[in-house]
Design a protein that fits this description.
Order of helices and strands: EHEHEHEHEH
Helix content: 25-40%
Shape: globular
Number of domains: 1
Number of helices: 5
CATH superfamily: Response regulator
CATH topology: Rossmann fold
Largest sheet: 5 strands, parallel
CATH architecture: 3-Layer(aba) Sandwich
Distance between the termini: 19 Å
Number of strands: 5
Low-confidence stretches: none
Radius of gyration: 13 Å
Length: 129
């Protein structure tokens, strides 16, 4: 079964770096979907929910927490792991993160090994790359 990872960040280089960090997982049945607009994030999924989403908190137009809320609302009951990408020193609203069942907040710049570990834990598999 294919696992889907959604990456949402308005800074194109961050999305590209995340995708590059995870691209060798495609051979293990992981599909990567990278978008740079919060408004397009949910629409880009179509009717197939992602299993994991890395979402930037600070984007123009719609915040990362609002994107997470929209994903939860669009795919109710789906086991979706949400990881927020936050700028250094930014602390997101803890209550809202808890309400949205955010798995973790990862500070940018991120450690690729941490991203891979979070991904493997969220998708429930081991991957040696």
């Amino acid at each position: 079964m294919t696992k889907r990872i959604l990456i949402v960040d308005d800074e194109r280089h961050v999305g590209t770096l995340l995708a590059h960090t995870l691209d060798d997982m495609e051979d293990a049945g992981v599909e990567l979907l990278v978008v740079d607009d919060g408004r397009a994030a949910v629409a880009s999924c179509g009717t197939v929910a992602p299993d994991l989403a890395f979402v930037d908190t600070d984007m123009p137009g719609i915040s990362g927490l609002d994107v997470c809320a929209a994903l939860r609302q669009t795919f109710p009951g789906h086991s979706l792991a949400l990881v927020l990408l936050v700028d250094k020193g930014v602390v997101p609203d803890a209550d809202r993160c808890a309400d949205l069942h955010i798995v973790e907040c990862v500070e940018k710049p991120f450690d690729p090994d941490r991203i891979r570990a979070l991904t493997c834990a969220a998708l429930g598999f081991e991957f040696d790359g």
